[in-house]
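Priority: low. Protein: Disease resistance N-terminal domain-containing protein. Input follows.
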Amino acid sequence: MNSLLGKLATLTGKEFAKLTNLRKEVKLFSDELTGMKDALEGLSYLGELDPQTKIWRDIVREMSYDIEDIIDNFMQNNGDSN
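Result:
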């Protein structure tokens, strides 16, 4: 998830992010992902998780991988790199 947040920061700094609406959306998205990352890190300190929490953790983790793939593709298609 840290690499995903780093990529979002890169997107924020690019020229197209100068557009106010996009910058706000990227910031909001980054804040949401940071909250998800913090929740996942908090779960890592707990012992045995209940089945529902394990499922939620796995879904959030997979979603972060999917989001990172989408951002990688977007950046590649727009000539950006990390």
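The chain has three helices and no strands. The CA atoms of residues 43 and 73 lie 30 Å apart.
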